[in-house]
What we know:
By secondary structure, this protein is mainly α.
Amino acid sequence: MKKHKIIFWITTIIIFLMEGVMPALTSQTEMAKEGIKHLGYPEYFGNALVVFKILGALTLIIPAAPKRLKEWAYAGFAFDFIFASISHFAVDGIGFEGFMPFIFLAVLAASYNSYHKLNP
Length: 120
């Protein structure tokens, strides 16, 4: 039980920092705006994505959040990572940018798995 709790908190904090805190702090920088534009998305899409990332990250990190809401947050992040990879592969070709979201998808999967072992 202790092992699953440690895995859950480490992986969930990584997701929280990378998908909640970092977008909140960097979303209005020129680099972030150019990144969204480079992939062919309008600027408002990036803004909406940041709002949902912050809400999802908060849902995962807050222990009192309802289980059903956490399931939606996990699913949303999974779709986000998968489609981020697809977007990068389509625009940039096969490269590190396209594989990076899969690394976070693996971290998310570890968080999800440990969450369900702690909350059967």
